[in-house]
Design brief:
The complex is a heterodimer. Chain A is mainly alpha-helical. Chain A has one domain. The relative contact order of chain A is 0.16. Helix content of chain B is 65%, strand content 14%. By secondary structure, chain B is of the alpha/beta class. Chain B is elongated, with a radius of gyration of 62 Å. The longest helix of chain B is centred in the last third of the chain and has 44 residues. Chain B is built from ten helices and eight strands. Classes of the chains: A mainly alpha, B alpha/beta. Chains A and B meet through helix 3, helix 7, helix 8 and helix 9 of A and helix 1 of B. Chain A: This is ABC transporter permease. Chain A: InterPro entries: Permease_MalE. Chain A: One of its GO terms (molecular function) is phospholipid transporter activity. Chain A: Keywords: Membrane, Transmembrane, Transmembrane helix.
Chain lengths: 261, 347
């Protein structure tokens, strides 16, 4: 028992968790080093942008539209009690721009892209394709990881802008059906309460969420073990961990943004 | 070759995707910038307030209900006052005069806190950059709620009084209570009302009669109407009244004279009655003198009769007969001409 304890600093689980944290930190360091050490794989980056961004666009558009419509529909009765339905555009725009658009986009992408990256890289890892790339003098970090992380970091903010646009369209549809509000009046009322800090915060959030999704997916895939079972675990854990980290980051960024308000 | 073509296609699609995404971002930034008047030239104004009621940087500034700028800075100054610096777009500057006031308000009952610029006379100068606005103090929502609370208390007290009043009425207290509960009072009131109704009917009939009477009076040719409308008659009446006045005065003078005369007569009578030495006193009081006077009158009467006989004799005297005949003729002639004149004058 004593010899078992002597092998670990705290306990096996805690030590593993801390080791995993350290490995992740080292992985991020490695990715950054490779990203800025020259020789960027632009074609692969464009392909990943297409795969991560454009292919997610229909799903994001549908989700965003439904989110905006439903959020407006659900908010109306509460505001109606105060006779403040004219505040709906303002309320919905604040909610969409500040929180919903980056969050919904990231959660959808963490499920779709994070799991995809994790599974793809995991299967490449367990089938030793990554090792083969190394043998054939192709830097797997630069080719596989940097391109995916960069594509996720760039396309997810862009997807969140699309998401905000279609969510506002959904909200407008609900508002105009009930209140017959003009689109200009809707946008004017909606954006009247928005400040530059909200837009900057939304961009920062979406960028960090994209980076997290790409990085977690790649890390989990790159560290997949135990054959096909490991691939499934990598896909699953990349989704769970990226979602968890997205909420943590959301909390942190909101707190920091509020210092500047 | 095929791979290169696919890669080019990806690049185009991704390029469009990124460009559209950036356009959405830019549109959002422009919209916020336009609404926040970020890209508009502004002048600064400020006001020092006691309470800003949660006003923050970025809050709107309204002038006549139009957004003309935003709050730039909120900071404490001495004596716990708050200096609020706000930007006003230059295009609105010419409409805002130096005698305008600012106050902290809300855009709606539960809306955001805003700065409202109001007032300003046309002859006043236009505000300049860095101008300090006067602050208009008015009741805050808390003050209004306090007043409302006071009203509620009053309402409660009134309700309690009313409750007490209704209870009293229900219990038959007071005039109204008795009226509602006592049957005899009701009967009396009912009979009073019946009498009142009859009186009203009589009054109505009287009114109708009066109206008829008034109508008759107003009929042309009626004496009262003439009296009121005929100017000539008024003049005559005035003349008559004046004459009556004159007559009255004359009568008064006559009465005075008559009174004086009576007084004189009384004095004279009294004098005669009391003074036995005067002629009339002697006549009234002395029987001897009275007999003498009576004898004298008898003698005068017989003398007169004798004189008549003498005169008759003289008429038949030859010397004087002609004179008397001539005189008779003239008298007859005079009578005849008088009768003819009278007949001619008759219609």
């Amino acid at each position: 028992m004593n010899s078992e304890s002597a092998k670990h600093v705290f306990s096996e689980k805690v030590d593993d968790w801390l080791m995993g944290f350290y490995d992740a930190f080292e992985f991020v360091k490695l990715v950054f080093r490779e990203a800025f050490s020259g020789g960027f794989e632009f074609t692969e980056f464009v392909r990943q942008c297409y795969s991560i961004g454009l292919k997610s666009l229909p799903l994001i558009s549908l989700t965003g539209f439904v989110t905006g419509y439903v959020f407006t529909k659900q908010s109306r009765p509460s505001l109606m009690e105060f006779g403040a339905t004219s505040w709906l555009p303002s309320l919905v725009t604040i909610a969409i721009v500040r929180a919903l658009a980056p969050l919904v986009t990231s959660l959808i992408c963490s499920g779709k892209i994070g799991s995809g990256i994790g599974a793809e890289l995991g299967s490449m890892k367990v089938t030793e394709q990554i090792d083969a790339m190394e043998v054939s003098a192709v830097n797997p970090i630069r080719f596989l990881v940097v391109t995916r992380v960069a594509a996720a970091t760039i396309t997810i903010p862009i997807l969140s802008f699309y998401c905000a646009l279609v969510a506002l369209a959904g909200a407008f549809l609900n508002v105009t059906v009930n209140e017959e509000t003009n689109v200009l009046a809707f946008l004017e009322h909606g954006f009247d309460s928005i400040v530059f800090l909200d837009i900057i915060t939304a961009v920062v959030k979406a960028t960090s969420f994209g980076f997290t999704i790409g990085m977690i997916g790649c890390y989990k895939g790159f560290n997949a073990t135990n054959g096909t079972q490991g691939v499934g675990q990598a896909a699953n854990s990349s989704v769970v961990l990226s979602m968890f980290l997205i909420f943590i980051e959301e909390l942190f960024i909101v707190q920091v943004a509020n210092w500047f308000r | 070759m095929k791979s290169t073509s696919r890669s080019e296609s990806y690049k185009v699609k991704v390029g469009i995707f990124v460009v559209l995404g950036i356009m959405i971002l830019v549109a959002g930034i422009l919209m916020v910038g336009t609404l926040r008047k970020t890209f508009v030239s502004k002048i600064d104004g400020f006001a020092i307030l006691d309470d800003v009621n949660g006003l923050t940087k970025g809050s709107n500034v309204w002038f006549s209900g139009v957004k003309v700028g935003t709050v730039k800075h909120v900071a404490f100054v001495e004596n716990s006052k708050v200096k609020v610096t706000f930007g006003i777009e230059e295009s609105s500057q010419k409409f805002i005069k130096k005698d305008a006031n600012v106050k902290v308000s809300t855009d709606g009952l539960i809306g955001n806190t805003i700065i409202v610029i109001s007032g300003g006379s046309p002859e006043a100068e236009i505000v300049e950059d860095g101008y300090q606005f006067r602050v208009l103090k008015e009741d805050s929502q808390q003050d209004m709620l306090k007043t409302l609370q006071e009203n509620n208390k009053n309402l409660l007290a009134i309700t309690a009084d009313f409750k007490e009043l209704v209870r009293g009425i229900k219990g038959g207290e007071g005039t109204v209570g008795k009226l509602l509960t006592k049957d005899d009072l009701y009967q009396k009131l009912n009979s009073t009302l019946t009498g009142l109704e009859a009186a009203t009917l009589n009054a109505k009939a009287t009114t109708v009669s009066l109206a008829q009477f008034s109508k008759n009076l107003n009929t042309q040719g009626n004496f009262v109407n003439d009296l009121l409308t005929d100017k000539q008659m008024y003049g005559d009446l005035k003349q008559t009244v004046s004459t009556l006045g004159e007559t009255s005065r004359n009568l008064k003078e006559t009465s005075t004279s008559a009174k004086s005369l009576v007084t004189d007569l009384q004095q004279t009578t009294h004098k005669i009655a009391n003074d036995k030495t005067s002629t009339l006193g002697v006549l009234l009081h002395d029987p001897k003198t009275a007999n003498n006077v009576r004898n004298t009158l008898k003698n005068l009467e017989s003398s007169s009769a004798k004189l008549d006989e003498n005169m008759e004799a003289l008429q038949h005297n030859i010397l004087l007969r002609r004179y008397f005949r001539k005189k008779d003729k003239e008298e007859v002639k005079a009578d005849t001409s008088t009768q003819v004149t009278t007949l001619e004058k008759m219609p």
